[in-house]
Please model this.
Amino acid sequence: MQPDSDLEMLMARYQRGDFAAATALIHRLSPQLHRFFIVQIASRGDADDLLQETWMRIHEVRHTYRAGEPVLPWLYAIARHIRVDHYRKASRTAAREAPLEEMPEVAAAPPARSAGTTDLKELLAPLPQSQREVVEMLKVAGMSLEDVARATSSSVGSVKQKAHRAYETLRERLRGGVS
Amino acid sequence: MRDREIDEILKQAAHSAPGVDPAVLDRVARSIGASLAPVRPLPPAGALAGGLVLICAAVALAGAALLGLHGVQKLSVFEDALVFPVLGILICLTAKALAGEMIPGSRRRAAPGVLLGVGSLALLAVFAFLFRDYRTDRFMAQGVACLTAGLLHAVPAALASWWLLRRGFAVNSMAAGVAAGTLAGLAGVTMLELHCPNFQALHVMLWHTAVMPMCAAAGALVARVARR
Model:
């Protein structure tokens, strides 16, 4: 987690054309953006693509960031837009394309993970998309309620409600012994 | 299980998530570096909203002045004091919402759809309270003329608003389209209140108010087409 003022300073320098600031932002913010995409819908390859696309869009619209405003809601609002766009395009493609022949059903190998830890994507999988993104931003990226509300274009009350419902589901699931 | 324990599990799971390939980060940095130049940040949202309010007022006043300020001349001081402040408040709220929709991560007080619904109901309530003449003389002919005039005046308001906000970026293009349409529609309704001398309740409630939702629907449609 980064101090907000530090990110704001880097954004301001990025807007002035400072390459070092742009690189610093990319290296500092990409891991959490990547995790955001992985948790939402994507495979690792998709997450890489979405991450690159997000940075290209951020670069295009970097003038829309206003000095003194928090960086993370601005960044996540753009990332959400990219994710929704990707989902929409993927759905359209899936609707148009039909497989030539039925593929044999092969069970995917479970992802390797260290003992005692739960995979974040798997943990959040039973949650609806809107709750999943709220939990990711609030509890994993460490954003405030106000910041999450800004990023998701909703009210603080709605964010609280989604987080509460998500925790109810997670509590049930964890009690059932997922980890 | 307590919330804190769930927090802890989530944090552990986040730490065990796969990291980003450094090659991807290098590629991103190289792409950005190739076209990196200083940019001029957008003006504050308040300044953009102020510009939008001015556009609405200018279009409504200019249109009414061209067609004749018959409506405002016929209205009583009390009616003036109720109709135009309500329109003014709706224009300010919608302008603020539209400016917010064009700046990612802005604070959103109300969704544009909600604003449209509340705005339409507020206008209907004001018109129902003020105008009690329920005759329907030349209802269709006069109504269609007013609706057309309102919609035609919404077009320059929408174009000027787009020009003012052209450097913005709508993360939710539908919401931005609805907000832009609502604002343009409000410019049309304001022009009609200034110009139209027909204050039969049903005429005002149907044909004047309808400009706003029709423009919002057009805004949503344009956004949908543009998104494809």
Summary: DSSP finds ten helices and no strands in chain B. Residues 3-34 of chain B form one domain.
